[in-house]
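sorry for the late reply, my laptop died twice this morning and i had to redo everyting from scratch. anyway the thing you sent over, i finally got around to it. pasting the sequence first so we're on the same page, its 222 residues, then the predicted structure underneath. double check i copied it right bc i was rushing
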Amino acid sequence: MSFLRGSQGRIREYSSSKQSSQLTMAYQIEDAAGTTLSFDTLYSHLRTFPAPLYPPGKARELELTARIASLRVHPSLEAALHLLNLDLPSAHFLVRHMAAAPAFEGMFLHGILHRVEGDYDNARAWYKNVSESGIFFKVWGTQDQGLGFIDRVEALVKGGKESLQPLETESARELETVIDWCVEKFGKGQWDDATGAWVRQSDKGRAIAEQQITGEAGGRRF
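ok and here's the structure:
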C-alpha cells in the first residue's frame, strides 16, 4: 500500500496492554492456522481504544496496517479501520480516491480524517460537501449538528472548557455509524479490484494527490 506524508501531532498515552495481549494471541492463532484475522476481530479490537479526538503522532499499532489492508474490504471500510487505528496516512491514501459524489462515504471519512488530524477548516469543508447525503443525515441529522461537533472538538484540543468524555462518545458514535452504514451497503467481503469504488478526480485534484504519494500501491489495484 502507498502512504501519504502525515501531519505530526500529539496524543495522550493510553494503557492498552490487556487489549494488545489479546490481539497478540489472535495473531499467534492466525499464524498457526495460516488464515487472516476477520473484519469483526480487528474491528472489535480497535473499538477497545478511546475514539479519536487528538491529532496523533503515530498509529496505535503499526502492525495492524498490513492486517487491515489484507482484509481487502471496501475502501471506505478499510479507511475507517485505519482511522480507528490512528493510521492517518493509510486512511488518506484511500479516501483521496473517493473525493467526489457519489462516494459520499469516502468523502465523509475524509472530513473525519481532517478533524482527527486537527485540520478543522478542511474538516468543515468536507462535512458541508456531504451534508445533504444519506450517510451524513444518518449520523448528524443536520449540517449544524455536524459542524458544531467539530467546533467542540477544536475547543477541547485548544484548551477550552469542553468535557472529554462526551466528545469521545460522540466520536465513537460517528465512526461506528459510518461503519455500520458501509457494512450494510458494501458488505464485509473482499474487493480485490478497489478501483470499482473510485470516483474520477479532476485533473488538478489528481495532480495534487499524485504529488503526495511516497510508495507503490502494492498487489491490490489502486
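The mean pLDDT is 81.
thats about all i looked at so far, will dig more tmrw
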